[in-house]
Amino acid sequence: MSKPTLDELRQQIDSIDDQIHDLILKRWDVVQHVAAAKGKAVSFPVRPTREASMLRRLAERHRGPFPFSALARMWHEMIAAFTMLQADYSVAVFANGDEHTLWDLARDQFGSQVPMTAYPTVRDTLAQVFENRHQIAVLPAPRESDDDPWWVKLSGANAPKVIMRMPFAGVGSVRGQMQDALAVARLKLEPTGSDRTLLLIETKEPLSRTGLNAILQRAKLHPLFTASAPQEESWVHLVELGNFVEEKDERLELIEVRDAVVRVEVVGGYAEVLGPDRVSAPIAGVTEE
Ligand SMILES: O=C(O)C(=O)C[C@]1(C(=O)O)C=C[C@@H](O)C=C1
């Protein structure tokens, strides 16, 4: 058999492209039914847990040299466009001066069609979701060294929660120094089978990391990362846990009965991200035991 000519090979590519195109158009027929099944009450159509499960499934079946992070970006673009077709939403992103990293991560995650607005301070960015001007805020992942951390604001019954960590499936090029980002929105948290939970703990007195760890270990909770911040009359601590913990989890009550603790709240969670070796690091740093 003779080797196919360049023209013939390109025809094969056109034929594959037609199939991909047809399938994307057909996918909309199904997404419309999904939107209907989710019900009229759904005004915010983004489902980060479903998206994480879909990408994990694809990562499992992925093979060959095509970079999975490129495939994931194509999927994010496609899912985001289908999400926009279900209902409008917009994204507030912290991007200031030369700091465009979060903008690039948000664009990769939420696609090119969703309206995104840059805000010059982290507080302004978060306020957009609190004030219902945007449905999602993209913020820098917490670090121990933050002197004015945004996560202290997440407390309260009506407060939005952390719903997602980015990048989920590796990253291409970003402007500026690579850092992880968290998305905040008003959305009920759901488990994906491989998750992290963020707790906010308020104490009357300052608490060392060892003290905080001891309280958590007694409640059979194992922190991956902790950060603390003084408030006017108390201290608040952010704790990242390596699994999904529901608001009603009885281990949280075990923390609450301790005298020093004023309040414990689940303030977010996210699907564990796919790392190069499919294992993700804690948001920032590892808690020393
Ligand atoms: O599964 C859903 O709930 C959908 O709306 C479908 C879909 C998709 O395109 O696959 C779109 C948006 C969600 O964030 C997750 C998935």
UniProtKB/TrEMBL annotation:
Family matches, as SMART domains: CM_2
Matches recorded under Gene3D superfamilies: Chorismate mutase
Pfam entry (one): CM_2
All copies of domain Chorismate mutase, residue ranges: 1-90
GO biological process: chorismate metabolic process
Record InterPro entries: Chorismate_II_sf (IPR036263), CM_dom_sf (IPR036979), CM_II_prokaryot (IPR002701)
One Gene Ontology MF term: chorismate mutase activity
Entry's EC annotation: 5.4.99.5
Full protein name: chorismate mutase
Species per Swiss-Prot/TrEMBL record: Pacificispira spongiicola
